[in-house]
Amino acid sequence: MTYRQAVDFYHSRLRFGMQPGLSRIKRLLHALGDPQGKLRFVHVAGTNGKGTTANMLSRILVEAGYKTGLFTSPYVFSFCERMQIDHQNIGEAELARITARVKAAVEEAEKAGEGPTEFETITAAALLYFYEAHCDIVVLEVGLGGRLDSTNIIPCPLVSVITSIALDHTAVLGDTLGQIAAEKAGVLKEGGHCVTTANQPPEAMQVLRTTAEERHNTFTAADPKCAETLSESLGETMFRYSGETYTIPLCGVHQVENAVTVIEAAKLLRGVTMEHVRTGLAKSVMHGRMERVARCPDVLLDGGHNPECGQALAGVLRRFAPKDLTAVIGMMEDKDTAHYLAQILPFCRRVIFTKPDNPRAASPESLAETAQSFHSEVRCVSDPQKAYEQALSVTPENGMVLVCGSFYLLSDINF
């Protein structure tokens, strides 16, 4: 099997859609020797900030000397980003080797009438990879929800982190914050440790506290209000928390919230010192999350897609965006596009809508129609690469090109 064949195999599983439940992943992992039972984990659930939080925790664990696996989604530039050890992507040849074993197990599962989904097969491959590489700890990001997510097949983790909760995937997780929080809290296991942000909506916080108490978890609500921002730029934020000063190469008050949650979680991990935390946070570069990848003009990437992500991005644009800003936007049609666009478009001088290479992508024309209430200078360019190149051609050196709305869009462009 080649790398390309491996990626095509995973994508072929998309036909099974999203099917919450643990029976398929349990059968698949059992066929692979149950690697999840031989690893230690930090589990990260939530609506917003999961990827950043997982990355920060992984960086800290590497600084503490642990051989650290990291499983996140989606990827931005390479499929191999989804499985990392000590922040090195899995090699293409290694991915092909692992995938060949998973594919054989999938074929056996299908004979029994249970075809695993795309995410389930990728989860299984990651767990097998981390086990065979003898990882000390794996930081595992939930795909969707928590209770019935395939990552929830793991034993009780060292710590469960639940990031900010908001309305998203309501057709699957429920249409109230309480229902969604209950799904996220499903990752809490008997006798564990739960860390979350004190900024949770009250309805969600009540569910998290109650579930933690019922499952005899210690419960920590990290309060970002106790953090004092000392300086902030587009590429760096310095803040003080509990008497210590930290620097993160990220922008936005929401990133300080993520960092404070991570600091409290790190206190529960044996062998981790505050110096490990400080150094790990300083190295927490995140692809596609308010990431500046070029200058003259600045090029800012942000794959967030829901209204809360839009609010966070708007906060950064309000402080740091130049007057001449061109946005290249592509989104999935099942997202709350109107609320997201309402927050972003007021900062844009011109907007180019495009279509990511994904069957769920919204048409540029439908996005443009939604945007008519917020913005007048709008055009549609179906090809993401051409849309980006057009944005560069019309933006002066002292301006900014913003590419946002979907991680799928970011992966379609050569920056």
Polypeptide structure, described:
- Helix 12 links the parallel strand 14 and strand 15.
- The longest helix is centred in the first third of the chain and has 20 residues.
- The protein is an alpha/beta fold and 415 residues long.
- The mean pLDDT is 93.
- The chain contains 15 helices and 17 strands.
- The strands form three sheets. The protein has an eight-stranded mixed beta sheet with strand order 4-3-2-5-1-6-7-8, with helices on both faces. A six-stranded mixed beta sheet has the order 12-13-17-14-15-16.
- The chain folds into two domains: 280 residues, Mur-like, catalytic domain (UDP-N-acetylmuramoyl-L-alanine:D-glutamate ligase, 3-Layer(aba) Sandwich), CATH 3.40.1190; 123 residues, Protein-Tyrosine Phosphatase, Chain A, CATH 3.90.190.20.
- Helix content is 39%, strand content 19%.
